[in-house]
Write a structure and sequence with these properties.
This protein is an alpha/beta fold. The chain folds into 2 domains: about 5-100, Winged helix-like DNA-binding domain superfamily/Winged helix DNA-binding domain (Arc Repressor Mutant, subunit A, Orthogonal Bundle); about 125-335, Vaccinia Virus protein VP39 (Rossmann fold, 3-Layer(aba) Sandwich), CATH 3.40.50. It has helices at about 5-15, 20-40, 40-45, 55-60, 65-75, 90-95, 105-120, 125-130, 135-140, 145-170, 185-195, 245-260, 280-295, 305-310; strands at about 80-85, 85-90, 175-180, 200-205, 215-220, 230-240, 260-270, 315-320, 330-335. A 7-stranded mixed beta sheet has the order 5-4-3-6-7-9-8, with helices on both faces. The chain has a two-stranded antiparallel ribbon with strand order 1-2. Strand 6 (about 230-240), helix 12 (about 245-260) and strand 7 (about 260-270) form a beta-alpha-beta unit. Helix 2 crosses helix 7 and helix 12 packs across helix 14 (about 305-310). The longest helix is centred in the middle third of the chain and has 25 residues, at about 145-170.
Length: about 350
């Protein structure tokens, strides 16, 4: 967590009179400390009440001297506070780092910490030579716990956004067939089928989906080379394009358009670098884009680029919605063959 700097110190760092990279160094230390605390169950132990160093060491089955050093850093970076001489969670830690909290962020931090630590090696050379490392999904497949965390995060995001997305874009009244390219978990397809009783959905991804919804079926295929049926009323490309190089992303939009019937509806949902987002969200989105580039040769694409791909695929943009539930997500709705 960023240090709560007094105004004069903050100004010194902003103006260049103090070394701004020092704050990044402290942030790096804090990230390691928070992950260690998370893995030790430190924040869960303090969720039951304030503890002395010895009590905290016993609760986490740790060495008292080691716990003292770790706790000192967590105090200095705002994750712990003192309560009558005992360690206690700060409001931020109590809300975001306890496993029993509905807002628990520890799994997110653990996943990103590992990705950056293991996959961002060679970043200077990749930038210099224009050759990203790649291999993200191969790396992820070899780590079952992180893969489960990644998949849960995808499902969590879809579960949060699906209601708004479905409400924003009305489907054609006679729609019966939806194709969901790269839909993975199938939650968006399930949400549309629930809202439209006549609709049947097919989710195409590298791994075949087994859905509990009776009108949602899965099929395993490569998104760029696998065969796709055509004549669909609706095609979804939700949070997919950013994982591909630009040429392949354009090809994927074109394939999605070809799978539509004339006047069919193409829906594209993507992370975008929106000015509506707060400073922290904008910074995270920039880092997310670096990670996409280095590990998948993708990136967060500008809205105008996505609109050009849609137009090039023979579809006319009908609507563009900036989601209220996520300031960094934009939904594009386009009609095939419309002028």
């Amino acid at each position: 967590m960023p240090i709560d700097l007094p105004a004069d110190e903050a100004e010194a760092f902003r103006s260049g009179h103090a070394p701004a990279p020092m704050l990044d160094l402290v942030g790096l230390m804090a990230a390691h400390a928070v992950r260690a605390g998370w893995e030790l169950g430190l924040f869960d132990a303090l969720g039951k009440g304030p503890l002395t160093t010895w009590e905290l060491a016993a609760a986490t089955r740790s060495d008292p001297a080691g716990i003292e050093q770790l706790a000192n850093l967590l105090h200095a970076t705002g994750y712990l506070r003192w309560d009558d001489g005992r360690h206690a969670n700060s409001p931020a830690a109590g809300t975001w780092l306890r496993r029993d909290s509905p807002n628990c962020y520890g799994h997110v931090l653990s996943l990103w910490h590992t990705m950056i630590e293991e996959l961002w090696t060679g970043l200077p050379e990749a930038v210099r030579e224009g050759r990203p490392r790649g291999g993200f999904y191969t790396w992820l497949a070899a780590q079952p716990e992180l893969r489960a965390t990644f998949q849960n995060l995808q499902r969590g995001l879809a579960g949060w956004l699906a209601e708004e997305v479905v409400a924003l874009t009305g489907l054609p009244a006679d729609a019966t067939s939806l194709l969901d390219l790269g839909g993975g978990h199938g939650l968006y397809s399930e949400a549309y089928c629930t809202a439209y009783p006549a609709l049947h959905a097919t989710v195409v991804d590298s791994v075949r989906l087994v859905s509990g919804h009776q009108r949602v079926t899965g099929r395993a295929a490569d998104l760029l080379t696998g065969s796709l049926d055509d004549g669909h009323d609706v095609v979804l490309l939700f949070n997919v394009l950013h994982g591909f190089p630009s040429a392949d992303a354009a090809r994927l939009v074109a394939r999605a358009a070809r799978a539509l019937r004339q006047d069919g509806l193409l829906l594209v949902l993507e992370t975008t670098a929106s000015d509506r987002a707060g400073a922290a969200e904008r910074a995270f989105t920039a880092g997310f884009s670096v990670n996409l580039w280095h590990t998948q040769n993708g990136r967060v694409y500008p809205e105008r680029q996505i609109e050009e791909w849609i137009a090039g695929a023979g579809c006319a943009l009908r609507e563009r919605h900036e989601l209220t539930r996520s300031a960094t997500h934009t939904l594009f709705a386009a009609v095939k063959g419309a002028s």
